[in-house]
Design a protein that fits this description.
With about 700 residues, the protein is an alpha+beta fold. Among the domains are: about 90 residues, no CATH class; about 110 residues, Dna Ligase, domain 1 (2-Layer Sandwich); about 60 residues, no CATH class. It has 16 helices and 35 strands. Strands 13, 14, 15, 20, 23, 24, 31, 34 and 35 form a 9-stranded mixed beta sheet that branches. A 6-stranded mixed beta sheet has the order 3-2-1-4-11-12, sandwiched between helices. A hairpin with a 5-residue loop joins strand 7 and strand 8. The protein is globular, with a radius of gyration of 26 Å. The N and C termini lie far apart (about 60 Å).
């Protein structure tokens, strides 16, 4: 794998400046910190949907100008993007072709043969990423153990690739053969043939992208990878060229869906691992706040311009998954999207963000999302041509946002346009007053988010009634206290800089890469030398991308895991392995490790044989030790009270005169009792009646949520 010159990573605290950039559907966020983790500056500006790199380059110029720093002083830029997610949703990636084992061309159309709702006659499923005409069958066949049943027909590969490129006009190729996880020889040879014919053609093969069982998920993931490759390559090239032209000579990282940092070269090879890259960074920061505050259980809540996302943190670590569903075709319903296999922080996501458009369904009920006004034209109050009502418009009408101080006064909001959009869009049709319509929008969004979080936590056995919520994103602090009240979450943490928290999260991650290998074997047939061989090979594969980008061998930390199940079960569980255990020790410990992990999840053990499904190794480099998301001057400007304004609090009868506090003037130990609004340039915190918040020593606002009224 090619990469940038191997330069040792700067140790935390050396004074190097680092910039985190999070591209969202509506805003692109920037956070600048020094090597000691101290906040230097933050910035927020509208995303440029047609070319997200433009907003990154322009925002980088602005934050450096505002802080008086030269681009040459930056040692690193860490960047997260929704580019791949949007490409899959909007199907604007490359025209993708597919080589598939003879007889399996229609696997995508057959699907899982599973209805996600037995009684809904309107079910929709995501269309395959590769059209049927672009799938070419190739004579070849492996057994489940990798033994060749039908040799690869190389002439058929040449003919198929030539037809797909010359006649069908494909721009990327996915190679997906049956049982390639057991042996990748046929896929690798097909790739070599295709590359010799068309050297510039981007190619992904399934045994490289995710070498695990379950053909449907593995092939869908490979096609998604190929679909996004040209788009990501072009985008990263524009970004690298633009930064280079500006004088940036440091290192550029891209954060992956599991929270680890990748080089642009790795991101180009595995763009499917960039799904959910921005949201993953925010969850990392939530976990950090939990650890620093001595709180084991965290509900991470991020509300941005297009979506609301929730993730769970146990004992300082976000819950993770290897199955992810993207591009839902039907109301964000599980089962209606593209089923992918990638390492990802486990989160739930619904289309309820600040830019989510409010509409009426067939029964005349208000719905918030999933369609979003995005950054162009944006909510009606942005004054950029939008006319449909959105959640941000409702929050402005309700008094939760100040049209004159939005983004620190850099962007004025049009209250009149927001009122008109709500009255024309839903108020007049439903016969509701402006205030009631706006409150309905706000409360429906809260209820939808609470319901999604409730289901997500229940399915994972997580009791959110004993956890703390960390709220961030541009809209998260406005909605968090009321969502927490619905969920009976007792405490909400509002970090300083919550509006750009995912950008800070970019800077809290460590370079990492995870690799895995299918390895079906009954536990009583497993040999010590097999363990040593497979783990040794995986550790070398996982460490290779880190060594290329300058991580020293002594800095690399390896985490080893194995997927196991009772013989005959359809699904497996992940079992962490002791870090320093030898192959002989692991062979002895595996039965007890599996039994303990199974009992932890299901509270029971079963009689019967146990089998191994596969092995995983994640290699990680050094991560920064600490972060200060509030500026050094926070709390040093006298009183925090900056004024008051009318805001809607139903429990108090409607509009009440509400105190408004300046977040940057809050000092540790100060207490604020709701109702209250606490403003900073990037977000506004809302405390309802009965909520009491205290500023802790890290300048976080920690609110105890009052009982529901």
């Amino acid at each position: 794998m090619s990469g940038s010159p191997a330069l040792p990573l700067a140790a935390p605290g050396t004074g190097a400046l680092r910039l985190g950039v999070d591209i969202g559907g509506t805003f692109t966020d920037f956070a600048l910190v020094d090597g000691a983790g101290r906040r230097v500056g933050v910035h927020k500006q509208l995303t440029t949907p047609n070319d997200p790199s433009f907003a990154v380059l322009e925002g980088t110029r602005r934050i450096l100008t505002e802080t008086g720093i030269a681009l040459a002083e930056l040692s690193e830029i860490v960047h997260g993007t929704t580019l791949v997610t949007n490409a899959l949703i909007e199907r604007r990636g490359a025209r993708t072709g597919m080589l598939v084992t003879e007889g399996f061309r229609d696997l995508f159309d057959i699907g899982k043969e599973r209805r996600y709702d037995l009684f809904d006659m309107r079910l929709l499923f995501a269309e395959p990423l590769v059209e049927r005409a672009h799938r070419a069958e190739v004579p070849e066949r492996l057994r489940h153990d990798g033994v060749v049943l039908t040799p690869l027909d190389e002439d058929a590969v040449r003919a198929a690739v030539t037809r797909l490129v010359e006649q069908e006009g494909i721009e990327a190729l996915a190679i997906c053969y049956l049982h390639a996880y057991a042996s990748d020889a046929h896929e690798v040879r097909s790739r070599e043939i295709a590359q010799a014919l068309y050297p510039q053609l981007p190619i992904s093969h399934s045994a490289d992208v995710f070498p695990y069982r379950r053909e449907f998920e593995r092939w869908t993931t490979t096609c998604a990878n190929a679909h996004a490759q040209p788009l990501v390559d072009s985008y990263l090239s524009r970004l690298e060229d633009g930064l280079g032209a500006m004088g940036f000579a440091g290192r550029l990282w891209v954060i992956g869906s599991s929270g680890g940092l990748m080089t642009p070269q790795t991101a180009r090879r595995y763009p499917v691992r960039l799904l959910e890259s921005g949201p993953a960074a925010g969850v990392l920061m939530s976990a950090r706040f939990g650890v620093e505050g001595g709180r084991d259980s965290i509900l991470s809540f991020d509300l941005g311009g297009t979506t609301a996302k929730g993730a769970l943190v146990r004992q300082g670590k976000p819950l993770r998954s290897y199955t992810f569903e993207a591009a839902h075709a039907y109301d964000y319903r599980s089962g209606s999207g593209l089923l992918l296999q990638i390492p990802v922080i486990d989160m739930t996501e619904i289309g309820a963000g600040g830019g989510s458009i409010v509409s009426l369904d067939a029964l005349g009920r208000m719905r918030v999302g999933p369609r979003s006004a995005g950054a162009d034209p944006g909510p009606a109050c942005y004054g950029r041509g939008g006319t449909q009502p959105t959640l941000t418009d409702a929050n402005l009408v309700l008094g939760y946002l100040d049209g004159g101080s939005f983004l620190g006064g850099r962007m004025a909001l049009d209250v009149g346009a927001a009122k008109q959009a709500i009255e024309d869009g839903v108020g007049a049709t439903l016969g509701l007053s402006l205030e009631r319509a706006a409150w309905g929008i706000h409360d429906i969004a809260n209820e939808d988010i609470a319901r999604a979080f409730r289901m997500h936590a229940t399915e994972r056995g997580f009791d959110y009634r004993n956890c703390s919520m960390v709220a961030f994103g541009g809209g998260g602090p406005i909605h968090a206290a009321r969502i927490a009240r619905k969920l009976r979450v007792p405490r909400v943490i509002f970090p300083a800089g919550a509006g750009v928290m995912s950008a800070f999260g970019m800077l809290s991650g460590a370079p990492s890469f995870e690799t895995m290998r299918a390895f079906p074997r009954r536990l009583d047939d497993l040999a010590e030398d097999e363990i040593a061989t497979v783990l040794g090979e995986l550790e070398a594969e996982a460490a290779a991308p880190l060594l290329v980008c300058g991580v020293l061998p002594s800095q690399i930390i390896r985490e080893r895991r194995v997927d196991m199940r009772y013989l005959g079960q359809g699904h497996d569980i992940e079992v962490p392995l002791p870090a320093d255990a030898s192959a002989s020790e692991l062979l002895r410990l595996l039965p007890d490790l599996f039994a303990a992990r199974y009992r932890e999840i299901f509270h029971a053990n079963l009689p019967g044989l146990v089998e191994i499904v596969g092995w995983k190794v994640e290699a990680s480099g050094p991560a920064p030790e600490r972060f200060m998301t509030s500026p050094d001057t926070a709390g040093s400007r006298g009183t925090s009270l900056k004024g008051e304004r009318a805001a809607w609090f139903p429990s108090l009868g409607g509009y009440v005169t509400c105190p408004v506090h300046e977040r940057l003037n809050l000092a540790p130990g100060m207490t604020i009792t709701g109702p209250a609004l606490i403003e900073e340039p990037e977000s506004t915190c809302l405390l309802d009646a009965g909520d009491v918040a205290v500023v802790d020593e890290r300048h976080n606002l920690v609110a105890e949520i009052g009982a529901a009224s």
